[in-house]
From TrEMBL:
Belongs to the ROK (NagC/XylR) family. PANTHER family: BIFUNCTIONAL UDP-N-ACETYLGLUCOSAMINE 2-EPIMERASE_N-ACETYLMANNOSAMINE KINASE, ROK (REPRESSOR, ORF, KINASE) FAMILY. The keyword Manganese does not apply. GO terms for molecular function: fructokinase activity. The keyword Repressor does not apply. This is Fructokinase. Pfam families: ROK. Its EC number is 2.7.1.4. Keywords: Kinase, Transferase. The gene is mak. It is an enzyme of class 2 (transferase).
């Protein structure tokens, strides 16, 4: 079995794949805090998968892990995973000796891009746009993840699209993330709630003017990211994933309407049919954990799935 884990700030989603790529088991468990907590979470998830799949630990051949933060290309060293309480961690060095199998690590968005591409059939090109607390993308062509020269390909969240726009935590103004990131929207909303972006959409539909402005801001930011990705990569499709896609058709409709509106004056932009190239990742999709399993199965640290 090939195991893949998506280690998130609150939960870890893990899958075990069989010989034909089928999902033999899937588990979810809370992510413990800090480097030691992450290590224990990974070990516990692998144990649970073995039990649920009815297989011994010896049946596991590789483990791949997707994590937030920066993963240095060619290594398993993760830095600045602040949502996990991890400043620096060589995850493979910590868990591979205990598991007895190769362990490889990838940034969570890039892993999710690989998984989404595989679920979409594995052909052509795809830009996976993750909409969560922040905004980032992964770009995949024919199963190959494009990293760029320094591993930052797809970091579209901090492209400024309006110098007079809202302040971004990165120090610029008008970044895509400042318009559409869940964290920035919650901060601008300023009202308590477990799901502030959903609250914004509900309040906008009830006529709240601030909510309506923030909902429009989200659509504007996501549409800008779609334009950037298509104009720079000409991806066949842009798949929207991440926590904000729980808004479902409301988000998809808003983004499509903004893409159509912003292209109205440009025959060139209309010819790209951007609104038709946007899809939502299916709810409860195992894309991130699946992509991590594919990362783990690569033959070397730079493997065919991760060429720069």
């Amino acid at each position: 079995m090939r195991v893949g884990l998506d280690v998130g700030g609150t939960k870890t989603d893990a899958v075990a794949l069989g010989d034909a790529g089928e999902v033999r088991a899937r588990v979810r468990l809370p992510t413990a805090w800090g480097p030691d907590g992450v290590v224990q979470t990974v070990l516990a998830a692998v144990d649970r998968l073995s039990l649920d799949a009815g297989a011994s630990a010896e049946a596991i051949t590789t483990v791949g892990v997707g994590m937030p933060g920066q993963v240095h290309p060619g290594t398993s060293r993760v830095v600045h995973a602040v949502n996990l309480g991890v400043d620096e961690l060589d995850l493979a060095a910590a868990v591979a000796p205990l598991l007895g199998v190769p362990v490889r690590v990838e940034n969570d968005v890039k892993a999710a891009a690989l998984g989404a591409h595989a679920l979409d059939g594995g052909g052509g090109s795809m830009a996976y746009l993750n909409l969560g607390t922040g905004i980032a993308a992964g770009i995949v062509t024919e199963g190959t993840l494009w990293r760029g020269g320094r591993g930052t390909a797809g970091e579209v969240g901090h492209i400024s699209v309006d110098p007079a726009g809202p302040a971004c935590r990165c120090g610029q103004r008008g970044c895509i993330e400042a318009f559409a990131g869940g964290g920035a929207l919650a901060e601008r909303w300023g009202r308590p709630g477990a799901l502030p972006v959903r609250d914004i959409f509900d309040a906008a539909e009830a006529g709240d003017p601030l909510a309506a402005a923030l909902r429009s801001s989200l659509a504007r930011g996501v549409a800008a990211a779609v334009r950037v990705l298509v104009l720079t990569t000409d991806a066949d499709v842009v798949v929207l994933g991440g926590g904000l896609t729980g808004l479902g058709h409301r988000l998809r409709a808003d983004v499509a309407a903004e893409l159509t509106r912003s292209a109205a004056a440009s025959p060139f932009m209309r010819s790209l049919r951007l609104d038709e190239r946007v899809r939502l990742l299916a709810p409860e999709s195992p894309a991130a954990a699946l992509g991590a399993a594919l990362v783990g199965a690569t033959r070397d640290a730079e493997g065919a799935l991760a060429r720069g």
